[in-house]
């Protein structure tokens, strides 16, 4: 992708982020910023396998092998996006309930975008942040044992020629210009509060109610690309207590826990 010229793209300053984000008793214990890496998710999964404690944040100014869901690649020019991953260990949460973590992360991202950038961000189940019908950010959660690494890729100053697909957008293209550090701090603060409350009461109905307020998928006609090449077409009616999308199809209600979902116009 060609890098745009004339766009200010200041670097992330790890020392300042640490001063403002890390606090005694807080969730976040370390923030690292690297100029370039293959994938922040892959790096933190390696840390998880080595036994690293939760609360580690890794941000990269550029990724050369970033990953999206279903094996898709994700690449952005240096400093044009906010790309970071967090390492969490929700050991007190049952494995069947851990699928809520990327959904809670999506709420934290959307809330931060509305507060810091004043853009009408909404969520597309399970992992996209949209403005209108255009994708602004994506979320990918990957697990190793009791560890879950959640990665976020958010387009900030990307121009049209720098976006991977024509259906994507950036904060710059939406007329917003917040700093990446302010965005990162707001997302981390929102995620920390939600994560700790969720770990204390993972089955509370409030998580589902909160997510539904942000979800633009529920109520829409959708097409779900299921594993094995199967397709399911119907209307998304809700998200169940396990975080699965429930689709009203011809043969009744079908919970969808994996696969790709397309909003049908």
Brief write-up:
The protein is of the alpha+beta class. The chain is built from five helices and 14 strands.
Task: Please give a handful of descriptors for the protein shown.
265 residues, BirA Bifunctional Protein, domain 2, SH3 type barrels, 2 domains, seven-stranded mixed β-sheet, 14 strands
Beta content comes to 25-35%
Global outline? globular
Q: State the separation between the terminal residues, measured CA to CA.
A: 29 Å
Q: Structurally, how many domains make up the residues?
A: 2
What's the total number of strands? 14
* CATH-level-4 superfamily name of the largest domain: Bira Bifunctional Protein, Domain 2
Broad CATH class of the largest domain: Alpha Beta
Low-confidence stretches: none
Order of strands, widest sheet: 1-2-5-9-8-7-6
Number of helices: 5
The CATH architecture of the largest domain comes to: 2-Layer Sandwich
Sketch the topology as an H/E string, one letter per element. HEHEEEEHEEEEHHEEEEE
Structural class based on helices, strands and sheet pairing: alpha+beta
Share of helical residues:
25-40%
- CATH topology assignment of the largest domain: BirA Bifunctional Protein, domain 2
Rg (C-alpha, Å): 18 Å
The profile of the biggest β sheet is: 7 strands, mixed
Please state the average pLDDT score: 92
